[in-house]
């Protein structure tokens, strides 16, 4: 709960003005099972399959060093040695490989999303044909029609479903898709929006090279799906998180810090060394924007917000980012536990990661409720990516997650 300087609790605008915010009604996640690679074996595997073991020993040692510092234990990948054997061009940067990579992801990205969507739809308890809108985010959408249409067909959605695809939003894709779903649900009576984020590193894989080592050590594959709607709810629908306010902020002059580029060889990415500091410098501003929108409070000096009174869903872009946010906001160590858990178990799955964090957060909240712990009612979600762009949401979670 947010308080003013005198410790008085704020009422949410939903309560004051009869406004009913959109809510997350169900969550499902999925990862490919084709390859699960522990971080301490990753450098050995990459250098073995690319036959670089004896040529680039310094680079291999560096990748090993980086992998040990990521805070990641393992990651899931769609790319297997079998696929690499079938596509030698993936390892030869002088040959075009984008088409072959897109042929593979064209089926794999929607398939992975379908696995996550089936779980979400089952939890939701209504037929897939009740979905009215679909918002799909992936950095692998380089063709049209794209993964959104394939997913709609695989799930048997109605032909009248309104589809939107977000491409190359990177790690803020999940936050952006959720923000759009909120706007749709609150402005279309009875709308039920399926938000799908499905990411695979297959378009990015290349021979080990200096500039991509950090990305190689961080990114993994996964899909996250959420169903979003606003009141009126059916009897089977349960609110996991109300999305009270959503804001986006771009940090001026940081365009070059983070980026992705589609080339004939696939997708290159750039992760600048300054990213954790930039996020640390800007996170409070982003949070205050979202809180002001949620609570109608124009006092931006930050003194009225007790960050430890909130629950947190932060995109785990990397361990130093979580460390920086924890330090700047003076968060207690367990506040980012859901984010650290997802980073440890799956790595950074770009736009899909925030869905995993919300899923882990609700699981933890349900466990805490089972143990009669007092749950935090208000929370903050942060997702960021190229721009640098930050999507921030104020969330409201039920005090008893299993009762509503
Ligand atoms: C790479 C790390 C695991 C290294 O951990 P530490 O920083 O604690 O360790 P360290 O300082 O000893 O660094 C180990 C080695 O990594 C190098 N190093 C660190 N950060 C680097 C970077 N961004 N680019 C290139 N090299 C980098 C250091 O120079 C050092 O090299 P040497 O050993 O030779 O001295 C971590 O910094 C990390 O997770 N960084 C990524 C954070 C980030 O920006 N994430 C955003 C992802 S993008 C995202 O989430 C959004 C999106 O993509 O859309």
From TrEMBL:
Record Gene3D superfamilies: 3.40.47.10
Superkingdom of the organism of origin: Eukaryota
Gene Ontology MF terms in the entry: acyltransferase activity, transferring groups other than amino-acyl groups
Keywords, in A-Z order: Acyltransferase, Transferase
InterPro entries named in the record: Chalcone/stilbene_synt_C, Chalcone/stilbene_synt_N, Polyketide_synthase_type-III, Thiolase-like
Entry annotation: catalytic residues: 171
Pfam families listed in its UniProt record: Chal_sti_synt_C, Chal_sti_synt_N
Start and end residues of each Chalcone/stilbene synthase C-terminal domain: 242-397
Ranges for domain Chalcone/stilbene synthase N-terminal: 20-232
Keyword Lipid metabolism included in the entry's annotation: no
Annotated CDD domains: CHS_like
GO terms classed as biological process: pollen wall assembly; polyketide biosynthetic process
Family affiliation: Belongs to the thiolase-like superfamily. Chalcone/stilbene synthases family.
Protein name in the entry: Chalcone synthase
């Amino acid at each position: 709960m947010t308080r003013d300087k005198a410790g008085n609790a704020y009422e949410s605008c939903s309560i004051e003005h009869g406004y009913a915010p959109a809510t997350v009604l169900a969550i499902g996640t999925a990862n490919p099972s084709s390859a699960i690679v522990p971080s301490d074996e990753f450098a050995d595997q990459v250098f073995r399959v690319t036959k670089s073991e004896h040529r680039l020993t310094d680079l291999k040692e560096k990748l090993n060093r980086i992998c040990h510092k990521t805070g990641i234990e393992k990651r899931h990948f769609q790319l297997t040695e079998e696929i690499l054997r079938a596509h030698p061009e993936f390892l030869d940067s002088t040959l075009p490989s984008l088409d072959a990579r897109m042929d593979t992801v064209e089926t794999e990205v929607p398939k992975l999303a379908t696995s996550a969507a089936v779980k979400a739809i089952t939890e939701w308890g209504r037929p897939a044909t009740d979905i009215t809108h679909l918002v799909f985010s992936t950095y692998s959408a380089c063709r049209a029609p794209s993964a959104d249409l394939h997913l709609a067909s695989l799930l048997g959605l109605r032909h009248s479903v309104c589809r939107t695809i977000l491409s190359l939003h990177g790690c803020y894709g999940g936050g952006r898709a959720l923000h759009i779903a909120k706007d749709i649900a609150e402005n279309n009576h009875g709308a039920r929006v399926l938000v799908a984020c499905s990411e695979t590193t297959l378009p990015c894989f290349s021979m080990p090279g200096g500039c991509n080592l950090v990305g190689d050590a961080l990114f993994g594959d996964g899909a996250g799906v959420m169903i979003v709607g606003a009141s009126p709810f059916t009897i089977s629908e349960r609110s996991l998180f109300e999305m009270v306010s959503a804001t986006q902020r771009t940090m001026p002059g940081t365009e070059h810090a983070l980026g992705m580029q589609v080339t004939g060889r696939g997708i290159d990415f750039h992760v600048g060394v300054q990213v954790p500091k930039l996020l640390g410098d800007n996170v409070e501003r982003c949070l205050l924007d979202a809180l002001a929108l949620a609570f109608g409070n124009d006092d931006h000096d930050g003194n009225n917000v007790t960050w430890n009174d909130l629950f947190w869903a932060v995109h785990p872009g990397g361990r130093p980012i979580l460390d920086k946010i924890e330090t700047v906001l003076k968060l207690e160590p367990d506040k980012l536990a859901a984010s650290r858990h997802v980073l440890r178990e799956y790595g950074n799955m770009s736009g899909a990661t925030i869905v995993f964090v919300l899923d882990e957060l609700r699981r933890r909240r349900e466990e805490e409720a089972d143990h009669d712990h007092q749950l935090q009612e208000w929370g903050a979600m942060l997702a960021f990516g190229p721009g640098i762009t930050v999507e921030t949401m104020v969330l409201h979670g039920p005090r008893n997650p299993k009762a509503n």
